[in-house]
Amino acid sequence: MTTETIQPPKRSPRRRSFAPRYPGWLTAPSLIYYMIFFLGPLAILVVFSVATQAGFGSVSYTFSTSQFKALNDPLYIKVFRQTMLMAAGGTALTIAIGYPVAYWMSRYLTRYKTLALLLVIVPFWTSFLIRTYALKIILDPQGYLAHFVEWTGISNQFNVLYTGKAVAIGLAYNYLPLLILPVYASLERMDWKLVEAATDLGASPFKAFRQITLPLTLPGLITGALLVFIPMCGEYVIPQLLGGGQFAFVGTVIGSNFLGAQNWPFGSAMAIAFMVLLSIFVVIYIAFATREEQFGA
């Protein structure tokens, strides 16, 4: 009778990681900042949203959902719808302008690529309010652009200011760099030999763009569109200055409830409801990004 010795299973050699390891307490400053300046105000909004107004500028801290029920009014539903439509239109206009610019910079520029990027970023170095006021001067019916349009005979009357067109122009102008940069980054990572191979095999330039360039740069395009769309939905300055207050955005209604009517519970409820609505787009983006990462892996 033979006895067999059971050999213990061989352990695979543990690979040594040379990646730097940092103590967890280094994240404390960012976490404290996040809790104080984001979670703190958000918690205050939640408390206000379930409270009731006891008078002008005074709040009764109770638990009531009446503020959220008041949002079912057709007037506020119209404000929500108008905000989403204007933001979607501004995003579409930004994409129509920004994608060709990013494509031209990445595909055809060689020596002056850094200069072009600098020209895209430079407007961000100026105050948002100053840029909007400058655009208001440009779109003034008595300004130089209006005189030029009348002189060329394109139109006898230049009435753009305080219209939806002025708001759309302001949205696209102020948020254009936020779309160009991620799209440009995705185009820079793309292998242009794939497009050349497709054209060599008989594909037209448009077909090569639709089947190769656009799918490969779609993550950057969606990222840029989300970076543009969400801030546009919460705009306050552009509708007030360029729209003359005639186009009510959710941000302007929230501002009027906090500053004018002093109805903090209703303004907080509207802010919370709109944040929940915008979170849907964030969830869709995260799902899309996760799927793209798994597909790419």
How would you characterize this protein structure?
This protein is mainly alpha-helical and 297 residues long. It has one domain: MetI-like (MetI-like fold, Orthogonal Bundle). It has helices at 28-49, 66-69, 74-108, 113-121, 128-138, 144-152, 164-188, 193-200, 205-233, 237-241, 250-260, 264-296; strands at 52-55, 58-60. It has a two-stranded antiparallel sheet with strand order 1-2. The longest helix is centred in the first third of the chain and has 35 residues, at 74-108. It is globular. The mean pLDDT is 83.
Low-confidence blocks of residues: none
Under the CATH scheme, which architecture would be assigned? Orthogonal Bundle
Note the run of SSEs as H and E.
Answer: HEEHHHHHHHHHHH
- Count up the domains: 1
CATH fold-level assignment:
MetI-like fold
Q: Major sheet: order of its strands?
A: 1-2
